[in-house]
Specification:
By secondary structure, the chain is an alpha/beta fold. The protein has one domain (26-49, 69-231): P-loop containing nucleotide triphosphate hydrolases (Rossmann fold). It has eleven helices and ten strands. The chain has a six-stranded mixed sheet with strand order 6-7-8-3-9-10, with helices on both faces. Strands 2-1-4-5 form a four-stranded antiparallel sheet, with helices on one face. Strand 9 and strand 10 form a beta hairpin. The longest helix has 17 residues, at 167-183. It is globular, with a radius of gyration of 17 Å. The termini are far apart. The protein binds adenosine-5'-triphosphate (ATP). The site of adenosine-5'-triphosphate (ATP) has 12 residues, from helix 1.
């Protein structure tokens, strides 16, 4: 479904990502793991067209996306939940969800997708008319995920969903991601610093260090890897 090859990207003249290779198959949850500043968000930005890769390839369902605009990439079915959620805090929950319907197709399917989102996150229906900025952190993360789902993604990218949330709320969000993959045809790229939770959720993972892929493997292989245990799990 997604094949990233030899991807290089950065900011201005500073290169951050070095020859990134990553694959994600239909129906998978793939984790991108790494500590602060490793380059995870930069990778997401390069895949989604928020920054332009300097070289390399991002093939999604047979189409080359590297160098394409973020709008083209969005239209191809890659929708992200950005780090920090980036909601319109003065707007209501419902208005934020409406912002997720960016195309003719997603606008046409808005009502039915809204219903599905309320099924995934019943709290959001109760809070439909509340300003998003007055919700709890966990509820705001739910709005951010629901807004992405309104965009009818084929690939959903979750960038640090655990940021600033209580562990049980993170579990709820990750459970929805897992159920989504099982019950729909959506695949998930899960970018996380919380490596224990990410490996408990994902099928496979990649560890990013200093802008390089340092390791990759199944979630169980990574959880058993001595370097991962020592550097990230503290065991
Ligand atoms: P975190 O988990 O803290 O979000 P990350 O793995 O997502 O970290 P990135 O945000 O991709 O890491 O940052 C990788 C490097 O790129 C860091 O050294 C950071 O300072 C740099 N960087 C990030 N955004 C910019 C920017 N807009 N301009 C210049 N440098 C940036």
């Amino acid at each position: 479904m997604l094949k990233v090859s030899k991807l290089n990207a950065g900011y201005g003249s500073v290169n951050i990502l070095w020859d990134i290779d990553l694959e994600l198959n239909d129906g998978e949850i793939v984790a991108v793991l790494g500590s602060n500043g490793a380059g995870k968000t930069t990778m997401v930005r390069a895949i989604t067209g928020m920054i332009r890769p300097t070289s390399g390839s991002v093939i999604f369902n047979g189409e080359e996306l590297a160098g394409k605009s973020s709008r083209t990439i969005l239209n191809s079915g890659i929708v992200q939940v950005p780090e920090g959620r980036q909601l319109f805090t003065e707007m209501t929950v419902l208005e934020n969800l409406e912002m997720g319907a960016f195309s003719k197709e997603t606008k046409e399917h808005f009502r039915e997708n809204l219903k599905k989102c309320y099924k995934w996150f019943p709290k959001l229906e109760e809070r439909e008319k509340q300003a998003a900025g007055t919700l709890s952190g966990g509820e705001q993360q739910m709005v951010a995920v629901a807004r992405a789902l309104i965009g009818m993604p084929k690939l959903l990218i979750l960038d640090e969903p655990s940021l600033g949330l209580a562990p049980n709320i993170v579990d709820d969000i990750l459970l929805v991601a897992k159920t989504l993959v099982k019950e729909t045809n959506i695949s998930v790229l899960l970018v996380e610093q919380d490596i224990t939770k990410a490996l408990a959720t994902a099928d496979r993972g990649y560890v990013v260090e200093n802008g390089h892929i340092a390791l990759s493997g199944s979630a169980s292989e990574l959880a058993a890897n001595e370097h991962v245990k020592k550097a990230y799990l503290g065991i």
